[in-house]
Here is the input.
Amino acid sequence: MSASNPIRAIRTLSILTLVTLLSTCTSPGTQPPAEALRPLGPTVPEASPVTSTPSLRTQVPFQRIVAATSEPHNWFTYSGSYFSERFSGLSQINTSNVGHLQVEWAYQTSPGLVETTPVVVDGMMYLTEPPSTVTALDARTGRSVWRWDAGVPDETLNIGFPRVNRGVAVLDETLFVATLDARLVALDAESGIERWSTVVADNSVGFAMTGAPLALDGKIIVGVAGAEAGIRGFLDAYDAKTGERLWRTYTVPAPGEPGSETWEGNAWEHGGGSTWLTGSYDPELNLIYWGTGNPGPDWNGDVRPGDNLYTCALLALDADTGEMRWHFQFTPHDVHDWDATEIPVLVNLEWEGRLRNLVVMANRNAFYYVLDRETGEFLHGQEYSKQTWAQGLDENGRPLVIPDTEPTAEGNLVWPSLQGATNWFSPSYSPLTETLYVPVRHMGAVYYKAAVEYEPGRPYMGGGEQAISGDDAWGYIKALDVRTGDIDWEFQTLTPLWSGVMATAGGLVFGTTNEGNFFALDARTGQSLWDFQAGAPGRSNPMAFEVDGRQRVVMHAGNSVFVLSLPDGFTVPH
Amino acid sequence: MRRHSKIHWMNLTLVALAPLVSIFSISIPALGQITEAATTEDLDQGRVHYIASCSRCHGVEGGGGEGPPLTRTTLTRAPDDDALVRIMQNGISGTGMPGVGWLAPSELRQVAVYVRSLAPSGPDDLEYLSGDPTRGRTVFENEGCMGCHTVGGSGIARGPDLSTVGARRASAYLRESIIDPAADLPRGVDAGFVGFGLGFVNYLMVGVVDNLGNQLRGMRMNEDSYTIQLKDAQGVLHSFYKPDLLELQREFDRSPMQSYGERLSEEELEDLVAYLTTLTGTNLRGIS
Here is the structure.
């Protein structure tokens, strides 16, 4: 953990010099030699909206992803960096000029629900469309260059979630997409030609994939959905060149394995523990941090007595072997469907007098957690949204569960609802304000329990809910002090949010609402500085990139991907 | 500003779930392929999903409320199981019935099994109403109901159109709405579970004070996180940017409609309810 470590040095440098360094150049970082003769940055200071500056051929070696924050004009991973901050280092759009933001272009996806975060590499944008289509766009104009259709069969099972896809991973000259029917596919970034396709799991028993894979050094990490169909969850690593599986780590132990004492009988066989979102990675520790979903069946815990490890937990896995270094279970024996798949955000902070490597998570169960990411030690936790199921957390972070808060046959009102105080959509961490911005769902639900028997490829949930809706539920963006979880400010929205946020070096927090509002808040005060009615629900995470010296913010409404920027007079020439 | 005290649907009397109905598949005659293959588990699961997704409007036992009763041998819009599943998937445009997009097709089939089980085994149990529809129509016209409601294209459309209200509301709900209009304000269903519409109170009275001190009360027509649209008593639309407002009061305990409990005799009330239940959209002509 020495400060002289090169990776740490790059990160520290990038944070300290973010604003000044990056507003003066668009450093492309590590570049392949073959691209050396191509122009790397804008050559015309006052760029017209469409310039002749060519895009580079996509080449994203591992080291370039490690140093992603030194290239804020690009967006290499689902969450923007291995630390999953979803923070843009771009500051051209800032608190003083965001009121002038305007739509530059829009792209219309295929029908269905859009939850994608585009990846942008040197002027090329790669996004996914429902259900598992990959499209390459010219990032300046939104015009498509190629499109790859996964050919997902109509009869593909998606039990417990809609037919969405959240994005691609990029490594070297290849894109990787996880398809709804549970295949991992490698595509040539230049052409969209399929390089290889590997069946990860059997969709006919309910396995499916909706999350963006995570590309590491030579390997692709990908998780699965399906706990509502009674799968046994796992996390996989595949060889990026061949598609060969390198390791698999189950999230539910078999009898005799560590953690198996938290299960009884054969319940583990359908014990759930999905891994359906994208985790984080510490290149220095070589550890993957990945959240796990609910145990199966969701609302009827009678058939699975015990804590049900490693469901509703954060796992730290050795990236080379998949070996579990530590685990932390947020909700033992969950009976409310409070997956812990939310994005784990890695932060390096001074903690009680010394620099510590931390991982923080605003959990679906309405508590905020700070853990040591080397050891998994629980350092702090507290409620960040209304909840009625726990009195608090004990000194080890275990919830002090209030009796009679489990689902019943007659129905039991509990906060938060099964969608949780937050859900799949991303939070954002700004190193400038040391604040975690969390989209929140202020919503309770009546939970029901029912008998359930496992049957392959069928719902395995054991109950349901009736959520409070309409005027009785609403949403927030909450600004959490990253050390304490104290709420610095909150911004209320009409309905419980289903879309993520992005903080920027321009001092802004971008987000969208279910009613179609795009907005930008002052990251320090929560004051709304700009809004725009985009005409359809937002259910994606914002991201940002820069090309030709112009910062763009990407937000989604319905099936439209909007790219917004400042008019010519507001863009700073280089 | 927000109502915290009362949650309408919590007043539902929920009876115990999961009654074990033995050999369910042979207890219902002449059903389509869905119920032929139905099992007891399908019925149980269907009931669970029904209660979570359907019961607020149709009642736990299918007796209706804000939505129509389902305790009928023939459902007008869903004569067969395919139609029933299709309605659950897509909703019914122009009515309060939303698509239940959050349930998988297999789960919708289970709900269909449960809905079919609500049908009476004997003769149809269409609600017995004591009132006379013809007299009820006279009450409707004499009391000035068409000053705010439309039927078959006639009237002033300030409040809900009633052309098909008989197909959409149970008689108990209609009776309550006439006596105590604010008791259960209709709720929106226009959007998916993430958008404005679902569960929001319709015809909600809202009072605002703008940044110049001007006051206005009106019916909420729409709202997002930044704006609100109100219709005043003259039918004129007003739009406000919420961050600019000095005050915004949502009046959840009031209805724009007055109570007719004192104005109508018991007989007139029953006649009016009987008339409204005949408004199913199948015979709209001849009302002026």
Summary: Chain A touches chain B through 47 residues (CB under 8 Å). Chain A is about 5% helix and 35% strand.
